[in-house]
């Protein structure tokens, strides 16, 4: 693969109270023709994450046609699982209300934070996302001992498939603490009740790698293809393939996208969302500082 970078699309200017910094984990949704709605996660002055969106035309992606003035999803109330932030990860279209899968944040004491997976429902285009439950959809368990986040969900017939981040350990490192998380797989019949059996999808490749996140999966010609973030020192974008969606073969050398010589994505590239449009594959991704420098767009150049 070889991805052609189309440039930086958006970075907050700091003028909005809920959108002070960051535009992390972008997710694309086709609206009509070449019109694209991109959801993203920004932080307020207290560092709490909120969900916003913007719209562009793929024929001229550098021009922002519309930017949300209010957040679609915000942190929850006192002691809630998303009290310190809500970050959209994936959206599944449904006739009775689109499902929004998101990561809820809690600040920690002995460790910096803890995540859970929440659900919100969108009824009507562009409406505020409503939370049907006070609690998380999925939380830590016997298979996911520390926290979970970043779900990617595909629906195939009566089976719902999820790939998600699973934190398995925290360790003290250079007078701080470091998390260890990789990607796991779960299944459901309704998108709400999920069966987790500890199936690892993407495993650490060596002792220096400690963070694998934000899976983006699509299926083409009977093969599951996944793009994701991985890091030891700094994030890069990886790629893997699978015949069943459970057992994966990492092919990171085939990803075809890396950091730029200078600019907003010169230090790291991460948090990809790969989507098909009009016969092409596009990738939204973040650059330096985990989304603080904004997100950009790339298109796959076929051989």
- Name the beta content range: over 45%
Helix share bin: under 10%
Mean pLDDT: 96
The first-level CATH class name: Mainly Beta
Total number of helices? 0
Tally of extended strands?
19
Oligomer: single chain
User: What order do the helices and strands follow?
Assistant: EEEEEEEEEEEEEEEEEEE
Largest sheet: 4 strands, antiparallel
**Based on helices, strands and strand pairing, what is the structural class?**
mainly beta
| Cα separation of the termini | 8 Å
> Which residues sit in consecutive blocks of at least 5 with pLDDT less than 50?
none
Return Rg in Å: 18 Å
How many structural domains? 1
Using the alpha-carbon principal axes, give the shape. globular
CATH superfamily, called what?
A: Glycosyl hydrolase domain, family 43
Task: Predict the CATH topology.
Answer: Tachylectin-2, Chain A
Q: Architecture in CATH?
A: 5 Propeller
Biggest sheet strand line-up:
1-19-18-17
How would you describe this protein?
The protein has strands spanning 3-10, 21-32, 35-43, 49-57, 66-67, 86-92, 98-107, 113-122, 147-156, 159-173, 176-188, 194-202, 211-220, 223-231, 235-242, 249-250, 270-277, 280-286, 295-300. The strands form five sheets. A four-stranded antiparallel sheet has the order 1-19-18-17, with no helix packed on it. A four-stranded antiparallel sheet has the order 2-3-4-5, with no helix packed on it. A four-stranded antiparallel sheet has the order 9-10-11-12, with no helix packed on it. By secondary structure, the chain is mainly beta. The chain has a single domain (3-300), classed as 5 Propeller (Tachylectin-2, Chain A). It is globular. The chain is 0% helix and 54% strand.
